[in-house]
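Q: Here's a chain of 158 amino acids. Please give me its 3D structure as tokens.
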Amino acid sequence: MTKIEKAQESCEQVLDGIEDGTITTTSALLQCLKIARLMNDTDAIMWLQYEYGGYPQTEDSKHIQDQAWAIGYKMGRGYIEKGKKFIFTELAPELEQKIVAQQSSVKNFTTQGTSVAGDYAAIAVNNLTAAVNNSTSIIVNNIGIAEKKIIYFKSKIL
């Protein structure tokens, strides 16, 4: 089997896996890295290595190195906030774990089984309900943001 045939086969596996939901973003990234190597695409190799292993930081560990930052921004990680350009730095594996953990934690927020009595019972229940609703809303919002970032990865791979 030639390199091109291997690359085509891997491409089909990645596309099918993403469309069917049977492959994680992390696995898709690794498969795409394999494809880039088979095709000798050095730009894609560099970008996919950053996506899988992290974007290299400056010596003070406060910023992403300029070349890596430019690649990340160019490949869709960029956003503008208050007139300044930024990139999000969470990696696909981190985002996937974050989504799973937050989906699990949402199930733990409930007022079910709560029992209060006394003159201030209604106030206590209202405060508890408001706190649970607020916490749940924050987590659901965070899940949505993480899922949008994962969609970015999938759209770049496709």
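Q: Can you summarize the key feature?
A: The two ends are 24 Å apart (CA to CA).
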